[in-house]
Known about the structure:
The protein is α+β, with helices and mostly antiparallel strands. The protein has helices at 3-14, 26-35, 41-54, 58-62, 66-73, 80-94, 104-107, 115-126, 135-145, 154-167, 173-186, 205-208, 268-272, 275-280, 339-348; strands spanning 225-236, 240-245, 256-257, 260-263, 287-290, 296-299, 303-314, 324-328. It has two domains: 3-214, Hypothetical protein, domain 2 (Endonuclease III, domain 1); 225-348, Nucleoside Triphosphate Pyrophosphohydrolase (Alpha-Beta Complex), CATH 3.90.79.10. The chain has 15 helices and eight strands. Helix 1 crosses helix 11 and helix 2 (26-35) packs across helix 3 (41-54). The longest helix has 15 residues, at 80-94. This is Adenine DNA glycosylase.
Amino acid sequence: MKFSKKLITWYLQNKRSMPWRETTDPYRIWLSEIILQQTRVAQGLPYYLSFTKTFPTVFDLANAKEEEVLKLWQGLGYYSRARNLHATAKYVANELKGVFPKTYKDLLELKGVGDYTASAIASICYKEAVPVVDGNVYRVLSRYFGIETPINSTQGIKEYKKLAIELMDHEDPADYNQAIMEFGALQCKPKNPYCIVCPLNDSCEGLKKGKIEELPVKLKKLKVKKRYFNYLVYIINEKQTIIQQRTGNGIWQGLYEFPLVENNQNNLESIQSDSIFKKMVNGVKYDITSFKEEPIVHKLSHQHLYTKFYIIKLSVIPKLEGHQKIVNYKDIHNYPVPILLGKFIDSFFQ
């Protein structure tokens, strides 16, 4: 039996029950694929259920406010996915009358839809024979064929895509694509794969050569950058605080946060001497304490944020910048914030 048929047979016997596997509606398949980008199924599933309940159609998502979408997305990270999701929903609803493109090539034109997502939608919804290539697929192909070309190199990306096209099952592209992804997630796992009971173990080059743990090969990551975030949590008359919306193209665009002092350290002296803090509390009597002595380390893909929250109590409203606003304690939970701030808000503003 050839490679693709073995995988499909395994898949039909071992696949997990998922709500997006019970439909070929392109809206729901697209939604699930965007949510599951760089996200584990266990984490993404409740978000998928929340989105489909809150926005059952692409028109409902298109008509939502961006803040609603970001709030529902809160905790999933990589927030550009949520902004692109919203923008694409508007485009499909308003420009395409709610009808998603029906080919891989046309799907690629949608914002936030890359090669992998377009392949998944085209094969599952429209039976187009285009292969998906994600982390799971790289791992299966690398191990089975004994390929040592780095998966994140230009050469590797081309080589794996070419191989994936050659292996594609044209009779059943939907099940084949889902099979190879599921196989990588459950059977050919990153650590301790089940090689003894693997249906491909009699012809797996990686297993023959004893290189399962070494494959796939990946070029070293970029150096991680350290950043020092110091949040100013103003407590005004024990009723109100101050928040601001992040702008620009950096992390957390469109989300809310407390006034921020970013410098090269986390200590009280540097905060009190900072121009942002001094300008806000100019002439106002205040009391300042650190929420926790040690900074919270929040790890993103290419940067680690060393974060401290400073509680600043005062009885009058300090001077605000144009992008800042006063909110009541009871309302602060309604704003979309990064998960780092969400955890602090849940513990502090109970």
